[in-house]
Design goal:
The protein is of the alpha/beta class. It has helices at residues 2-14, 44-61, 76-86, 127-138, 156-162, 173-182, 188-200, 220-226, 230-242, 255-265, 284-297, 311-319, 325-328, 341-350, 372-383, 427-433, 443-446, 451-471, and strands spanning 18-24, 30-35, 67-70, 90-93, 106-107, 116-123, 145-151, 166-172, 246-250, 271-274, 300-307, 331-335, 356-360, 389-393, 405-408, 438-441. The protein is 42% helix and 18% strand. The protein binds 5-bromo-uridine-5'-monophosphate. The active site is at residues 304, 306, 309.
């Protein structure tokens, strides 16, 4: 059964029945995790599996019952499937009939004094299960057991026990986080945030949830105003004006292809990312044309050079060679691996030209080593070089400092990988769950037969996700 639970959690995450971000719950509390099981009606195979696992969980618990009743509305189809597949009669609780005297609250036949099992999708405080139990009991039924798909583990189980109801769950928040972490679906920082939330928002007696106001999320404009570095200020300003937090990665091999793509996607992007060293015909004319397009469409040019050598060598690589990167790229990036010398070297070339740099704190590729203490040390290095480092390439938000920009590659609307280690998340996941400021999309845009429309789709998805963060 545990393999099936694991697969189910992954499926629920994939269909966004489990979401991470900033959500206002019914109670008015801000939560970093949200379960929206209503969507499962659109996925019959998943819905059926949920119903089967609910049934097996109940049977394993030894609960005895003559009828089943789903808490309206999300659990209704689940109870229906359990009833139909296992030949156990169902009852329907009417939600809208407020007047107990005139309307029937419970539809279906039952014997007074018989037991009814309550079926629920998510339990937080247990109040919805309790309410349904009270209605069932008001017509003479007995409720001793309830079964739930997801227990948020905020004290609902204990509350129901006090009310004489034994709650059994298929999965709890802790196990859900463990599964999603093991499959690298969410970063550790997000899992930790949810664990903190569960700890601090228990419904157990004496531990009533504090009404917590989440910290205000600053807009791109507000953050730009806080920045010292001109490139960071310009980028935030472009993002706000163009309503775009999309960077397109122009991983193409000829100048003509890169320029054509830049012109097509220009209106939809805040930044164009290049890999100059994959081009066969890099030239000063190319640089001139690209700079003109950047001025015309208003985007930042980011050369994804990933410097990773001693200071003296990266200085040459940045200033000299075939590419003279410092002459045309507003932004470049570096690995923290060599130590702060890499930044000292780059700075000596870049600062005078008002260029900026990102540090690679996390990577999107499977099995990469930029994790844990390495990532933490990278953030520290950035903090020590704020005159040049304006943010990170990362897979999650690494600091609350609003002047650091987090850019996340490995984003696609469909597709989970490329067979060469790349791992994709959706724009929503990148911006809401992982709190990226900018999403970086390569093949999702340039491989599309209509790159302009594709860029527009990514722009809309990522900007709506940002607006969701602002509003919550
Ligand atoms: P894709 O086609 O969307 O998979 O391209 C992603 C781009 O981002 C590509 O240019 C990579 O070199 C770059 N990238 C990445 O994918 N993952 C990382 O961790 C880093 C860069 Br750092």
């Amino acid at each position: 059964m545990s393999d099936r639970v694991e697969q189910l959690i992954l499926d629920l995450f994939a269909i966004e029945a489990v979401k991470f971000g900033d959500f206002t719950l019914k109670s008015g509390i801000q939560s970093p995790i949200y379960f929206d099981l209503r969507v499962i009606v659109s996925y019959p195979v998943i819905m059926n599996e949920v119903a089967e696992l609910l049934w097996e969980t109940t049977k394993k618990s030894g609960a005895k019952f003559a009828t089943v009743c789903g808490v309206p509305y999300t659990a209704l189809p689940l109870a229906t499937l359990m009833s139909a597949h296992h030949d156990v009669p169902m009852l329907i609780r009417r939600k809208e009939a407020k007047d107990y005297g005139t309307k029937k609250m419970i539809e279906g036949k039952f014997e007074i004094g018989s037991r009814c099992l309550i079926v629920e999708d998510v339990v937080t405080s247990g109040s919805s299960v309790k309410e349904t139990a009270q209605v069932l009991e008001s017509v003479g039924l007995v409720v001793t057991d309830a079964v739930v798909l997801l227990d948020r583990e905020q004290g609902g189980k204990q509350k129901l026990k006090e009310a004489g109801i034994e709650l059994k769950g298929i999965c709890g928040t802790a196990q859900l986080l463990e599964i999603l972490r093991r499959h690298e679906k969410i970063p550790e920082s997000v899992a930790e945030q949810v664990r903190d939330f569960v700890r601090n928002n228990s419904f157990l007696p004496g531990l009533e949830p504090p009404v917590k106001k989440s910290r205000k999320v600053l807009s791109y404009r507000e953050r730009g105003d806080l920045c010292q570095h001109p490139v960071a200020r310009q980028l935030f300003s472009i993002m706000e004006k163009k309503k775009s937090n999309l960077a397109v990665s122009a991983d193409l091999c000829t100048a003509e292809q890169v320029l054509q793509l830049a012109d097509q996607v220009g209106p939809h992007i805040c930044m164009l990312k290049t890999h100059a060293d994959i081009m066969t015909d890099f030239s000063t004319e190319f640089v001139q044309s690209l700079t003109e397009l950047a001025d015309r469409h208003q985007f930042i040019i980011f050369e994804d050079r990933k410097f990773a050598d001693i200071g003296s060598t990266v200085q040459h690589q940045y200033r000299d060679g075939l590419y003279h990167i410092a002459d045309w790229a507003h932004l470049t990036n570096a690995h923290a691996l060599p130590g702060s010398g890499v930044l000292e070297g780059l700075k000596q070339v870049g600062l005078d030209k008002k260029r900026a740099c990102l540090l690679i704190a996390e990577m999107s590729s499977k099995g990469n080593l930029a994790t844990g203490d390495y990532t933490k040390a990278t953030v520290k290095m950035a903090e020590e070089h704020k005159d040049f480092v304006v943010g990170f390439i990362s897979q999650s938000q690494l600091t609350e400092d609003p002047t650091f920009i987090h850019m996340t590659p490995g984003v696609q609307l469909s597709g989970s990988g490329d067979g060469l280690g790349q791992q994709y998340v959706s724009p929503w996941d990148a911006v809401v769950t992982r709190r990226a400021d900018v999403i970086i999309v390569g093949r999702g845009v340039y491989k599309d037969p209509d790159p302009a429309s594709a860029a527009q789709r990514y722009q809309t998805a990522a900007f709506e996700a940002y607006q969701h963060r602002l509003a919550n």
